[in-house]
Amino acid sequence: MSRTLPVVAIVGRPNVGKSTLFNRLVGKKLALVDDRPGVTRDRREGDAHLLGVDFKVIDTAGFEDEDPQSLPGRMRAQTEAAVREADVALFLIDARAGLVPLDEEIGRWLRAEDTPVVLAVNKAEGRAGEQGAIEAMALGFGEPILLSAEHGEGVADLFTALLPYIDRPDDEPEVDVDEEEEARSGPLKLAIVGRPNAGKSTLVNRILGEDRMITGPEAGITRDSIAIDMDWQGRPVRLIDTAGMRKRANVTDKLEKLSVADARRAVDFAEVVVLLLDATRGLEAQDLKIADAVLQEGRALIIALNKWDVAENASSLFNGVRAALEEGLAQVKGLPVLTVSAVTGKGIDTLIKVAFETREAWSRRVPTGELNRWFEAAMERNPPPAPGGKRIKPRYLTQVKTRPPSFVLFGTRVDLLPESYRRYLVNGIRRDLGFGAVPVRLTVRAPKNPFDR
């Protein structure tokens, strides 16, 4: 059993270095960082480990005084929620800019909350931060911690200040778990991908049952890929919301390029990927490119038609999408195509259920005996060709790994097998051995002929 980790929420106005400090504490470049303000929108979580203490860090959007219905206003609501759930708020200000009215407003808000506050002055390398530190004393949170998130200065002092709020005794012994069994029984890593405005964040919020992600009519609200842990009918799920992926030719902004790259890394991390389509727009060429990229990475793929509650000509739309997938993704037949509504919640339980079943197939290992009985029968039904009169002699087939299922075919001249015969074997493995529509990889290995010179 895992303990609930203490939580540190980093708050402050835009562009004071919250995401840089977040990356420093978790030891990875998880959050997108750019010179312009307002890069972070949704709150992002990461696990940190310092001097034997484990805790969770939350990177929040820059705190702005805007209309609650505007995008900055909705971002502020996410920050407020993060602070209320945290064990301690890390209030960050910019040493070089000094104390500004928005810092004072944030300070008044934090004093009205019950969450303890640790004040830190960022960008204080050298003597640049002395004046900012003096001004920060007026906020009433005691002497601030001077640090440089970019260069790592002052992190030890910061940790010392946080320690009283995050150091908990470890009452539960660690339990050794078999690595493969842990992978199968651990959280389902489920990523939601698709074009902008397909409804990915709205779907994530509906699955979670709370407004965890910022949503709205504006395209491209989500920038970071956000992973959220949850339970579905007693089973753990790690849900990953991603930025919308447009055609590469249309992506010219540096920040959008970073967001799309982050979404692709989320696909690499996932086990099962849901490609969310907008049912009011149908299947487009960009959707097929995203699907192909997911399959090339060896991830299990599910197609979900969102906004089904407002779709017109539903039956012909569904059949048209399925036919286009069969033609455009010839390497995988029979992909699950489901209908959902992120607004009403229709089809979500089915979506999660199919995701678990798909992961089970993606993780399946076939016993060697069963595999080679199938292989012999497949060879009898359709013997391999003899290109140029040279007979190909496949000997046996073995599964070398799972997740994705990968097989190696051994035999004489098997490297001469045409692509059509390899597809015959792969399709048969999927159809007959319980792999369904998950990506299956097949490589061939022929012994070297000592006389071929």
TrEMBL record:
What's the domain of life for this entry? Bacteria
Where does the chain bind GTP 1? Answer: 12-19, 59-63, 122-125
Q: Name one Pfam family in it.
A: MMR_HSR1
Could you list this entry's UniProt keywords, alphabetically sorted: GTP-binding, Nucleotide-binding, Repeat, Ribosome biogenesis
Q: Which CDD domains match?
A: EngA1 (cd01894), EngA2 (cd01895)
Protein's UniProt keywords contain Nucleotide-binding: yes
A single Gene Ontology MF term assigned here is: GTP binding
Among SUPFAM superfamilies, the record links this protein to: P-loop containing nucleoside triphosphate hydrolases
Q: Provide a GO biological process annotation.
A: ribosome biogenesis
Specify whether Hydrolase is a keyword of the entry: no
Binding positions for GTP 2? 194-201, 241-245, 306-309
Instruction: List residues of the EngA-type G domain.
Output: 6-170, 188-363
- Entries under NCBIfam families matching the protein: GTPase_EngA, small_GTP
**Its quaternary structure?**
Associates with the 50S ribosomal subunit.
Family of the protein in this entry: Belongs to the TRAFAC class TrmE-Era-EngA-EngB-Septin-like GTPase superfamily. EngA (Der) GTPase family.
Outline what the protein does. GTPase that plays an essential role in the late steps of ribosome biogenesis.
Tell me what this protein is called.
GTPase Der
The organism is Sphingomonas changnyeongensis
Q: Which gene encodes it?
A: der
